Structure formats: structure tokens, C-alpha cells
Structure to design on (314 residues):
């Protein structure tokens, strides 16, 4: 062995001999400990990764459809509690029946009920009947003769009955002549109305129309007390739909031999009573020199009478 190599081994021995070599068992224990630490760290990392993935997946799948995914909600106890606003109990709602409009298209009120009370524009029930409560003829039906207000009868004789005479506040009536639209001016009228307007106490107007129906039913035939040989027959007719309710009936007069009949046949008169609230208007078509009533003319003027009352009461 060369001298340089011998000196190298001696120097190496001087460096390693004082520290001594670690026993093999201790080396293996250190190696096992390091391996366990690395394994534990790996397990913790995997667990953290799996937990985060599961939490994110749960948030995404529990979100409402169309709601963008976001961070999970705050842990319990970390949110701020906001008290719900106090809600007062709902007050009971009282249903108030609407008063029927005073129009010419309403039907009859149900039996046993009282229609709305007629009121003036001031809100108080009217106490007087003005001229405006009476309708104006259409221009084509004007005769040039002025209507005359008087205290004549409201209805024809009905076997001694007097329907609607109680509970009256005020009553006004007039006589009104008219002509048909195709009758030339200057000719005699084609017919005339006994037109009355009656203002009743609350609730009495409806009773008055009930009394009128009963009176017509109870008096199908009547002999004239002032004109011998004249027989009057009464019957109720259909044709409602005016005001709150209405009654239409026919008066047919026949003449025995010698009594005289200008028209040569029975005379037919139509009478219609219309109620609007506590007001009743009656159109009694009385003809002119023996003419009979024309239903279409009476219907048209009945609508005009309803409109006049509505304009007054509104």
C-alpha cells in the first residue's frame, strides 16, 4: 500500500471513530417513524380533499333550479337573526250590496225584498215631483198640443179596488196627446196618455205594484157603471224589463148593440206601471176618438218615461 493511501485511511478513521456508528435497529426505527409520518400526512390531505369536494357537490345539487351555485351557507349560530315584521290581524270585510241602478233595463226585484230608496242629487229622498220627472215625446210624435197637468185618475176602474193609494207622499198627473211618426202634421192625434208620477214612502212603491197585479187578476170582467152596455175585460200581459219592476195589463172594451162603437170593434187600451225605487210612473194609453193602443208606441214611450225618472233621481 502506498504511503498516501495509508495516510488517507488514517485521516478517515480519525473523522468517524469518535462519533461511532448508529446501531442497525435504531436506523430501522427512524425509518419506520418517518414512513408513518408521511402516511399520516397523506391520509389527512386525502380526507381534506374528499370533504371539500363533498361539501361543494352538496351545495350545487341542493340549489334551486336556475340558481347559480355559491358558497355554502354560514354555520349555525353565525348568521344574524332578523325578526319577522308584525302582521296585524285582518279586519273583517263587510259586504255591502250595491243598490240597483235606476235604469230601464233592470228586471223585477226578488219577491219579498224592498228596492232601493229613490234619492235626489243631494242624497236625501225627494219630497216633491218636478216637471222634469215627466218624459218628453220624440220630435216625430209631437202634435203641437201642450200637455195639461190636472188631478185626473191614475188607473182605470178595477172593480172598486184602489191599488197604490196608501203611503203616497205626492202624486202628479197630466194628459198628453201624441201622433205616430208617419202621421202628417196637422192631423188629429193618434192617441193620448194619462201619465202620472207618484212618490211613495220607503217600501210602499213595491207594495203598490203588488196590489195592482192582484187587482187586475181579481177583476177579469167589469160592467161600466156610467155607460150602460159597455163591458171591460182586464188581463195581465208579459213585457217587463222596465225600471226595477213593471206591470203591463190590457183593458179591452166591447160595446153591445145600441151602445155605439166608433171603431166598429173592441177598443184595446194598454196600461203600464213602472217602479224606480220609491217612485212609480203610470202610462195609461187612452186613445183618441175610439182608436186602440199601439204596443210599439207604448213600449217606446215607456222607455222614455224611465229615462226621465232616472235623470231626475240621479
Amino acid at each position: 500500500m502506498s504511503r498516501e493511501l495509508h495516510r488517507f485511511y488514517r485521516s478517515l478513521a480519525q473523522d468517524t471513530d469518535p462519533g461511532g456508528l448508529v446501531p442497525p435497529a435504531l436506523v430501522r426505527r427512524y425509518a419506520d417513524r418517518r414512513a408513518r409520518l408521511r402516511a399520516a400526512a397523506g391520509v389527512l390531505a386525502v380526507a381534506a380533499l374528499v370533504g371539500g369536494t363533498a361539501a361543494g357537490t352538496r351545495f350545487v345539487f341542493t340549489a334551486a333550479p336556475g340558481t347559480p351555485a355559491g358558497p355554502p351557507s354560514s354555520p349555525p349560530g353565525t348568521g344574524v337573526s332578523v325578526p319577522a315584521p308584525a302582521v296585524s290581524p285582518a279586519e273583517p270585510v263587510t259586504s255591502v250590496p250595491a243598490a240597483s241602478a235606476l235604469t230601464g233595463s233592470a228586471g223585477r226585484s226578488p219577491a219579498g225584498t224592498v228596492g232601493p230608496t229613490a234619492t235626489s242629487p243631494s242624497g236625501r229622498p225627494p219630497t216633491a215631483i218636478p216637471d222634469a220627472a215627466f218624459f218628453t215625446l220624440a220630435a216625430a210624435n209631437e202634435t203641437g198640443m201642450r200637455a195639461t197637468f190636472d188631478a185626473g185618475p191614475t188607473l182605470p176602474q178595477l172593480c172598486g179596488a184602489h191599488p197604490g193609494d196608501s203611503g203616497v207622499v205626492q202624486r202628479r198627473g197630466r194628459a198628453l196627446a201624441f201622433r205616430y211618426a208617419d202621421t202628417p202634421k196637422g192631423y188629429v192625434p193618434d192617441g193620448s196618455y194619462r201619465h202620472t208620477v207618484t212618490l211613495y214612502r220607503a217600501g210602499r212603491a213595491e207594495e203598490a205594484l203588488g196590489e195592482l197585479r192582484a187587482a187586475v187578476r181579481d177583476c177579469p170582467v167589469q160592467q161600466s157603471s156610467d155607460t150602460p152596455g159597455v163591458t171591460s175585460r182586464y188581463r195581465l200581459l208579459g213585457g217587463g224589463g222596465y225600471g226595477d219592476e213593471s206591470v203591463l195589463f190590457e183593458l179591452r172594451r166591447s160595446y153591445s148593440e145600441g151602445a155605439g162603437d166608433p171603431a166598429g170593434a173592441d177598443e184595446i187600451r194598454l196600461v203600464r206601471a213602472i217602479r224606480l225605487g220609491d217612485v212609480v210612473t203610470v202610462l195609461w194609453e187612452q186613445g183618441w176618438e175610439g182608436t186602440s193602443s199601439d204596443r210599439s208606441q207604448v213600449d217606446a214611450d215607456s222607455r222614455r218615461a224611465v229615462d226621465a225618472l232616472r235623470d231626475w233621481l240621479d
In short: The longest helix spans residues 24-62. Residues 131-313 form a domain with the Protein Transport Mog1p; Chain A fold (CATH 3.40.1000). The radius of gyration is 53 Å. Residues 18 and 239 are 138 Å apart (CA to CA).
